[in-house]
Please model this.
Amino acid sequence: MTAELQLFGQVAGSHVVSNPQGATSVAGVYAAGNITSLTETVIGAASAGLKAAAAVNLDLITEDPQRAIAASAVPGV
Model:
């Protein structure tokens, strides 16, 4: 999802809406840097990229165990 960025009462552009870890409203899609905050500096954009990368890594680490647990679940219990 995108939203307009307003600066001093004027639309300066649009940006991708994401949470602090970079997750968007679409499952598995992350965004970071100037696409999420048009006024971000280089160091802030790099920091956002690091947070998004950590969130993606966590998703990948937990995905296989979650699938294994779901596959081993006993139906009707």
Q: What stands out?
A: The first helix runs from residue 42 to 72.
